[in-house]
Specification:
Order of helices and strands: HHHH
Distance between the termini: 66 Å
Shape: rod-shaped
Strand content: under 5%
Number of helices: 4
Radius of gyration: 22 Å
Structural class: mainly alpha
Largest sheet: none
Length: about 140
Amino acid sequence: MKPEDELLQLGKLLDRQAKAFNTLSPKTNKVSESWNKAVASFEGGRGPSTAKFQTLTKRFDTAMAGYQKIEDTVDDQRAELRAITDRLRGMRFGIFSGKLKAAQKDLLLLADEHHQGARKLLEALGRLRREVGNELSDAESKI
């Protein structure tokens, strides 16, 4: 495969990665929204009860599973990004390939941005998981 064709192919893969990554934020928001509704339901009405806490515990498990699924997806995408980055770094061009080298550099910068975004999302998911766990502990202390 010609180097320019390979760069084009790797660029398309990075674009696909970006589109897939952009779908994860709404999914995270949906899981968080569901958990927030569960907490509101637990505290609403006649107040906290043992039965409501059992329901909240089930919703906690569902929220944790949702966050874990998103984390797994991010981990998979990071592995694919590493493979793309490794391939980009492994490419060598001739003396008169300034445009190809510039394209390679641009793609490497884009891949680095994706890596940073994935890292930030994983950190945010970790914070969300801790917050949800703390909220469950607070709810348990209310019954």
